[in-house]
Amino acid sequence: MQGLLAQGISVRYGARSVLAGLDLPLLRPGEVTVLAGPNAAGKSTLLRAIAQLQPHGGQVLLDGQDLAHVPMRDRARLIGFMPQSLPSSSSLVALESVIAALRAGETLGARQADAAAMAVLDKLGIGALALEPLSALSGGQRQMVSLAQAIVRDPRLLLLDEPTSALDLARQVRLLSELRRLAGEGRIVVAVLHDLALAAQWADRIVLIHGGHTHAEGAPEQVLTPQLLAQVYGVEARVERCSRGRIMVLIDGEHAPG
Amino acid sequence: MSDATLQRYHRQGRRNALLVAVLGLAALAALLLDLVTGPAGLPLADTLRALTGGEVARGTQVIVWDVRLPVACMALLVGAALALAGAEMQTVLENPLAEPFTLGVSSSAALGAAVAIVLGLTLPGLPAVWSVSGNAFLFALGALGLLQLLGRIRGGGPEVLILFGVALNFTAAALLSLLQFVASADALQQLVFWTMGSLASAQWPGVVLIGVVLAVAVPFSFRAAWKLTALRLGEDQAKSFGVDVAGLRRWTLLRVSLLAASAVSMVGVIGFVGLAGPHIARMLVGENHRVFLPASILTGALVMSLASTLSKTLVPGVLLPVGLVTSLIGLPIFFALILRGRRR
Known about the structure:
The complex is a heterodimer of chains A (about 260) and B (about 350). Chain A has about 260 residues and is α/β, with parallel strands linked by helices.
């Protein structure tokens, strides 16, 4: 069975249950899936649970194999994870940090790793930042470096936590079209996004997470409806069709219940 | 463009390797300087001749080989061990202030020594000359063991470990004060030198011991260099790169425990070196642990060796406790470096 299947994912922080047996639909290779939902809905937690960075109940299967039983080193080859932010205090230069993504888990030759890391930075259009210390980069630049770290091992599954939160418009487009391209090559891409306009434009599938469960899922036009947005976010929303078949979400205000 | 950037990166790598080599030479020069200074005022030529096995007076032979060389080597090795311990602690505990001194390892060692000196409690079967150091070693190791155990029970994040360390530091210091309060004048005299850190009692067996510990620990540290570098990007990142972070932390702290415990049990409490060695190294070569670790080791050795020389020359005719020198001379230099680093 090709794809990512997460079933019955539950996570508790102490007495508080963040995810309560959450099921995701089968996410197929070639698809970009966006996880959306209000703050504290458990999106990041779900992403970290799938990446096996967070102890959890339930099962995560990638192409049929249970990720919890895959040795750490092999898992690193299968999964690329992009966190919300990189530490801003490190004096490592961008290139070194991407080389570390290659050499920390593997015994890879220096020449090979250096060249591969440089190629990824170039591909993302940040080759000029290669020798800058992370501490000297802006939040958005660090986010691009973080993406480079996530994709440099050429993983089958890409998990990204709010990858566009600090990016300007041009870089948002660059990052999202890179994600599209990577998915097009047969990868599974899952990203947490808050910006529903971006989600509508770039996602094949949106999963709305609310209260520790999957509230709704499907193609953008199926999920981004006034009813569902009112239920999940409590906002009064209009969904308009624009040119080229795109949909646009307009928020009029808070939803008045009843 | 990418080729040019890669070339520049490799040039920086060579520059860093060269800096490490220069640090090594400087440490060696400091060792020689340490050897030729002392109350006996030996000329450099005589010292060198004695070192290389040439013809010298019997007295010179004894001074160089039995008095000065063990002290000078001890300074170098203790500096190296403390700085390596500090560098690795700062990385695995994700805190720039972590080092054997701030985590209470040094004060626990001093407490162990005090128990031996004041109360006469020692391990059975240990020769009398080793009883103080042996006790100090046990207490230092015990402190780190306790730290890890408590951290494990509470689900040991780095912050928890740091807090336990600070608490341990105060507890050991308080107990030490209590022992000083009840100590005889004679014991107090011994104790004071111990809590201030002193190289005066350095002897060959101790030098060999700490040399062996370093020789065992360093290859493991270097092998973990990329893993430690990855950890600087955050725990989640390191894990997603395939690093077993919990295992890395456990093994590194074990290595660090041995290094720190053997260093402080030889020379007593020496602050600043475990903190400043890594920080100076970081400013010089950055945080790629493949150069950062060797640079830390050599910086620590250099600083400690210079401190040993200064402890003999600062006040003519008086041998100051070396821990006092590292703190008094080292801290202003350290602050100057930090402030300069900020401006850039």
